[in-house]
Amino acid sequence: MKKILFFLSLSLLMISCNEKQEKPIDDNQLTAEEKSDSTNIKTFFNTALTNGKSYEWLRDLTQNVGGRLSGSPEAQMAVEWGEKVMNEVGLDSIWLQPVMVPHWVRGEKEIATYTTNGVQKNVAICALGFSVATPNSGVLAEVIEVKSLEEAEALGDKMKDKIVFFNRPFDNTLIHTFKAYGGCVDQRVRGAAICGKFGAKGVIVRSMTNSIDDFPHTGTMSYGDLPAEQHIPAAAISSLAAENLSKDLISNPNLKFYFKQNCETLPDAPSFNVVGEIRGSETPENIFVVGGHLDSWDLGEGAHDDGTGVVQSLEVAYLFKKNNIKPKNTIRIVFFMNEENGTRGAKKYAELATLNKENHIGGLESDSGGHTPRGFSIDANSANTTLLQSWKKLLSPYGLHDIEKGGSGADISPLKDENVTLVGYRPDSQRYFDYHHTSRDTFDKVNKRELELGSASMASIVYLMDKYLYGDTPVKL
Amino acid sequence: MKKILFFLSLSLLMISCNEKQEKPIDDNQLTAEEKSDSTNIKTFFNTALTNGKSYEWLRDLTQNVGGRLSGSPEAQMAVEWGEKVMNEVGLDSIWLQPVMVPHWVRGEKEIATYTTNGVQKNVAICALGFSVATPNSGVLAEVIEVKSLEEAEALGDKMKDKIVFFNRPFDNTLIHTFKAYGGCVDQRVRGAAICGKFGAKGVIVRSMTNSIDDFPHTGTMSYGDLPAEQHIPAAAISSLAAENLSKDLISNPNLKFYFKQNCETLPDAPSFNVVGEIRGSETPENIFVVGGHLDSWDLGEGAHDDGTGVVQSLEVAYLFKKNNIKPKNTIRIVFFMNEENGTRGAKKYAELATLNKENHIGGLESDSGGHTPRGFSIDANSANTTLLQSWKKLLSPYGLHDIEKGGSGADISPLKDENVTLVGYRPDSQRYFDYHHTSRDTFDKVNKRELELGSASMASIVYLMDKYLYGDTPVKL
């Protein structure tokens, strides 16, 4: 009986294992050339998953440098760190591109509070990037809740001396969370510009997240062409605080909200893009850019945004070198500075590319987090888009199914041209806005395998682009 | 200039948002019937993502009941919890299926240590399920490291009075982590049966995980038909401890390893499967089973294994009822007892199905964690496999690309028959073995959206199976 049970339990165990078998590519469906590509792609994945460097690089960047907002001492440390790790990989050449960047500082931790029904509530807030400070005594005012810029604009003079509270939540029914972000972020970026015009005392904006929690999400804002005297302080409040405030405003519409923040925009500061390359073996004048951004918001450690993109980009070069796979064209790794509040690094990079008459044939950016791979978004002409989509059978065994037309990324998009093939790496997005621009964006939120699979995914598409894309036409900027 | 910068930054922002646009199904590619299906599927996802219940159910089960090994008071609490939540959903009928289950208890926390080069090292271990205890004084012996059952068997009498250390790691190059698990778990299940035969004093087995960390992973083992006097204690040691011990054995091959554990197998205990159903509107005699397992290992909270499968299964019923979508056939939700160490609940369920001449036409199991959806594994005849794969265009917008032939799950596979279509839900597996069977398998590791997307994915395939699969032939068990 025991023996029967033993084999029964073993056979159940085997069912349980067999059911989860690896599905290799059916070699019979591949041409000889595709088999060779398939082998090289497998090599990238094997190396990343067994000898990857990205996770330890990320640990170093996030835990020893930490948050690294443009202009900060940490951003300068990150530049030095970037040179160091590029040297470790042994790139053919490494240099810094000087660029002046905005220098906004948060100052002391923000505070916010209101009292309703005799109960004082402390509210989790943080200043938005580029916001002015409140007066030293803070701002105390009644609150008007709105769901859109249009609704705010329609208030006109009614918002004078009030705090305007933007509270349109993410549409959680959208499967791709970046779409929900795109549907809300106008409140954060433009809210203060609209309300400053009508004499509001400040704006508070519901945090950009799918979840209900008590972490405020910072991010950039702009006063547009509003005169300086109309600039009003702008803060993000946590989604939980937004829900509570909205309820409290129903029972107590005249409650007064208080907040105080101490942020300041200092004069522009010198900084750098960090650049390194593997020189092409056949047509080194043709360049593929692979990059992420080195700066991050100050609240967390800049792990998923965008430490992961930085270390994955460098790991692309490492995977080529470690496996002695020599690209025909030049693979250039760029750690862009200042994506978060200005994209000055991206602009400088494109400006120099024009100035130096460089021939960019393509680019790949990783700035959507370091979660498990899902695919790529392609910003290219139809022929090249079709070509990239034809690689699905080589890429889908690695979970790379979503290979669709779309944008690439903020740092490489200034290179956009009919003949330049730009690609954005697209990992799974479900958890991304739990961490984005908050104190929770820390190293421990990144999974080693997910990160490494991303590096190998990126190396694979760079390998295919290097081999099969032609880049005869110089980029026209 | 400021205005230019404002619009430039806005346009960059828009690029950054547009590039991540939701890609809806192209309606022109769908038949009228498929459009209706597409609408219902979207409804499942919208409801799960905005009014889902699974996350709060999971919080309750994991945090108020906790780990719930078969035969424990917590397992009985989980049964009562199961009845309660099924009642909340308002299923047409709810009942318990009595089943006798193994009752193994861990006892006091295990300890393990060894001394090398004058340094005493404490080792993270845990007893394997069904293992005997060590003597009260523990086991102290020299260690022989092996990488496989074959290597152990070949040692023969050389292992007498020794501790055999099974140290074959996961193959991290396998993209699907369950495959790596399948390639190692024989060491855990059968190691002690082989070594007990030759008079070893105990076995210690490297934890079943992709990562290097200090958490021991428990799991079931078996002595097979070995006489009781040859049963030797079996423990898992953390992957980090395994790496260190392996190194220390090189410099100090005669080091003595000590461990002590206090576990015990008590007489079988009474327990239950919890069952509830929505009665079919047209052919209620045809049954689809949807389930996960209610029991869990004792070390954590049984969150990903398999609290998520339990709450997702119930959410399938909730999504049908909430949206007033009436299945033609009966949808039966089952919380199986004792998947982890015996699958007695599964066997009892299948036995009763035969006894009661029930006509099962299909089943769906969720027991691979609660991470982001990837697809389904199909265990069915060719015609039905092809039919399920034809639904890819309806399912792929939700990240469900991997719809392949394979196994289903340990709890529904006893229903296997040529005419029964069994399906396993397959979420992303990259992080799963970071938590599996450890103290880390806790509620906080589950992401709300990922969990809810899984529920809706499951409801969608049940909806399609209910509508399009015919089940004229009774199940033959």
TrEMBL record, chains A, B:
GO terms for biological process: proteolysis. It is found in: Endoplasmic reticulum; Golgi apparatus; Lysosome; Secreted. One of its GO terms (molecular function) is metallodipeptidase activity. The keyword tRNA-binding does not apply. This is Carboxypeptidase Q. The keyword Hydrolase applies. Residues 273-452 form the Peptidase M28 domain. SUPFAM superfamilies: Zn-dependent exopeptidases. Its main location: endoplasmic reticulum. Keywords: Carboxypeptidase, Endoplasmic reticulum, Glycoprotein, Golgi apparatus, Hydrolase, Lysosome, Metal-binding, Metalloprotease, Protease, Secreted, Signal, Zinc, Zymogen. GO terms for cellular component: extracellular region; lysosome. Homodimer. The monomeric form is inactive while the homodimer is active. InterPro entries: CPQ, Peptidase_M28.
